[in-house]
Amino acid sequence: MGGEDENKCRPVGFLLALPFAFLALVFSIVGAIIWTIGTVLSCLCPCCACCAGLVNLAVDLIKMPIKIIRCFIEQIPC
Fold first, then answer.
1. Closest by Cα among 75, 71, 73, 74 to 63
2. The pTM is what?
3. Which of 49, 53, 59, 66 gives a 20 to 30 Å CA spacing to 7?
């Protein structure tokens, strides 16, 4: 059911996404650092509710490059 359409290679979308994905990779590294600090803080003081939100934000930053590349690949049809 439409499996062939979903697996098509879209090189133009991938190439257009690369500069943005590189920028997102920098944010991803920052997110990894924030995630590490937030995890340590939440282990030291479990009453810190703000650390959980900070860790969730950091995980979103870590996933950002993949999300950007997928978005560009889906948007450009060729």
1. 71
2. 0.63
3. 59
